Amino acid sequence: MINIAIIWGLIFLFILQPGIAHEGAEIGARLFISALLPYLLPYIILTQWLLKTSAANTDKATWKRYVKAYILGSFGGFPVGAVTVSEMTKRNEISTKQGGLLLAACHAPGPMFIIGFVGTELFGDIRKGWMLLIAIHVVNILFFLLISLFLNSKTKLPKANLPPPTKRSGIPLLDAIKDSSNVIILVATTVIFFSSLGAVLANLVATTLDFDTGITQTILLSVFEMTAGVQEATVHLSHFTLFPLLIAAIISVNGLSIHMQVAVIAKSTNLSLRPYILGRLWSILLVPIVFYFLL
């Protein structure tokens, strides 16, 4: 009943503010085309292609599968980590419980996005982009090591049984492109929807409570859609000394758009989201701190 009330409430908000809704959706679409698609699509295709081409190896040590999941998942951008872990779970390279834990660790923005978009375009300093990328992976690797210790403790999860290699009937590259297109559609849909929703709610809050529209929109868009949030923060908050740390915090929060993408992908293989939530809290707390000391 509550869900229905929320949905109808949002429908009326969109009807009452069609211009704001359109503007927010347009911002989300532009960000997806300019800031996400060029950085995300090539890596998703290559990651999927590699996973579909590589044969399952029954002799491979379990820790090597963890490293494989981290390397492929954490350097491709959101939500490549979820895609990688989900694909490895489908292939029985890791168990469902192992996948749920690795889902939390194999989650990071792509280096092309952080260095190219955030560092060069937002910070105007590629060095700061590198520092932010290092901070993110330092925090992620620490969490990954903790996860690995848990996975290999006395109460470790059962090892996944890898099936013997089978002859593939399809073409791995074409299969990779097909699967990647589904992920890209999911990313585009969530980015545009949550950008529009954030803009509508920001305008409502600003006009109702007499708050600064720019700051309100920055906060709400950061909660709903990360890329739109960092874009708005650049417009309204770039003059602050702590601006780089604010961007690090927004990227660590990720936004509901990315969390929704991960949840949809994880659901396809019944991966638990509880470790993922813990991992996000870990990142929100530590990434800005590590980034501060690196700067």
Structural account:
The structure is a single chain. The protein has 295 residues and is an all-alpha fold. It has one domain (25-294). Helix content is 78%, strand content 0%. The chain has 13 helices and no strands. It has helices at residues 2-16, 18-53, 62-74, 80-90, 96-105, 111-123, 126-151, 172-209, 213-224, 226-237, 243-253, 256-267, 274-294. Helix 3 runs antiparallel to helix 4 (80-90), helix 5 (96-105) runs parallel beside helix 13 (274-294) and helix 11 (243-253) packs antiparallel against helix 13. The chain is globular, with a radius of gyration of 20 Å. The model is unreliable at 154-158 (pLDDT under 50).
In N-to-C order, the SSE pattern is: HHHHHHHHHHHHH
Count of domain modules: 1
Structural class: mainly alpha
Principal-axes shape call: globular
pLDDT < 50 stretches: 154-158
Can you give the mean pLDDT? 84
> What share of residues is helical?
over 70%
Distance between the termini: 49 Å
> If helices are DSSP runs of H or I spanning 4 or more residues, what is the number of helices?
13
Strand content: under 5%
Rg over C-alpha atoms, rounded to the nearest angstrom: 20 Å
Biggest β-sheet strands, sense, barrel = none
Number of strands: 0
Protein name: Sporulation integral membrane protein YlbJ
Keywords: Membrane, Transmembrane, Transmembrane helix
Transmembrane segments: 31-51, 100-118, 130-151, 183-206, 242-265, 277-294
Organism: Sporosarcina ureilytica
